[in-house]
Design a protein that fits this description.
One of its GO terms (cellular component) is plasma membrane. This is EamA family transporter. It holds the Pfam family EamA. This protein has one domain. It contains 15 helices and no strands. The longest helix is centred in the last third of the chain and has 29 residues. The chain is globular, with a radius of gyration of 19 Å. The protein starts with 6 loop residues before the first helix and ends with a helix.
């Protein structure tokens, strides 16, 4: 165990992947009740209202946010506005297990984007790890039959989650290169999240408007949808962000990164219990390949 990985830190770092797995399962459950872009807008609108009493200072005229509004607009496009919308869109045509397994390829995209866009050198070990992880993603895409790769027909949800993963990887690199002005907000996770939610709501509003104008968008109000909205606004958004920040502060980013690989495992368990989506053998093989690749590429 990492010397900095105390039981408290481990507990804090287990909470976010559990919440994110629940987000995928709940998003799949309510997909017949609400259109994906609308779901994303409602989720972050509720999170905004819940955070407002404790993070309103970031909205004041003298806040560092306004001098860095272009940066936060880009950050929110690739996270709150884009990533989450694509995730919910993917859940309309793909299973929660598939979505989180393909999403587990994000560290590979981070490797490639760092190499191509930020001139970060990549070792042979990291390339080998990338190959293993991509093999795991391909195993999910071909549903466990390698022969089908010759005539691979992607489900729309698989494409959406791949795009979301690439966007999140670029978002992560932007976070790793903060400007001096925006870095001051990073020390306060509530203020930093609120700064992104402000612009994320704007992006989500644009996407939702297009959804209602161009597609048969719908929303069926009721207690099931209301309960789902409260969960995804409080759990995967606010609680997960807070626990992740506290856990990383205690254990460090290197140790914390491996906990994100618990998301597909938790999703498989929750999907079996709640949705009846029984994991297949190829899901387990894909999980092993993806995690092996990430561990191999992360070792020093």
């Amino acid at each position: 165990m990492n010397p900095g990985l105390t039981p408290t830190a481990a507990l804090l770092l287990v909470i976010p992947p559990l919440m994110w797995a629940g987000n995928a399962v709940v998003g799949r459950m309510v997909s017949p009740l609400v259109s994906p872009m609308t779901l994303n807008l409602l989720r972050w609108a509720i999170a905004f209202l819940l955070l407002l009493p404790i993070a309103s200072r970031v909205l004041k005229p003298g806040s560092p946010l306004w001098g860095q509004w272009r940066r936060f607009a880009w950050l929110s496009l690739f996270s709150i506005g884009g990533y989450n919308a694509l995730l919910y869109l993917a859940l309309n045509s793909s299973t929660a297990i598939n979505v989180t397994l393909v999403g587990a390829s994000t560290p590979v995209w981070m490797l490639l984007i760092g190499w191509l866009g930020f001139r970060t050198p990549v070792s042979l070990r990291q390339w080998l790890g990338a190959v293993l992880s991509i093999a795991g993603v391909l195993l999910v895409l071909c549903r466990g039959n390698w022969d089908t790769l010759r005539h691979l027909h992607l489900v729309a949800g698989d494409v959406y989650v791949l795009l979301a993963s690439i966007g999140w990887a670029y978002y992560s690199w932007l976070l790793a290169h903060p400007t001096p002005e925006s870095a001051s907000l990073r020390t306060d996770w509530t203020g930093f999240l609120m700064a992104q939610i402000i612009f994320g709501l704007a992006w989500s509003g644009v996407f939702t408007g297009a959804e209602w104008a161009l597609t048969p968008a719908h929303i069926d109000w009721g207690w099931p949808l209301a309960a789902a909205l409260l969960y995804i606004a409080i759990g995967p958004a606010i609680i997960a962000y807070g626990a992740w920040g506290a856990g990383v502060a205690r254990a460090g980013p290197a140790a914390a990164g491996f906990f994100t690989n618990l998301t597909p495992l938790f999703t498989a368990l929750l999907s079996t219990l709640v949705l009846g989506e029984t994991p297949q053998a190829f899901h387990g093989m894909a999980f092993v390949l993806i995690v092996s690749g990430i561990v191999l590429s992360s070792r020093r």
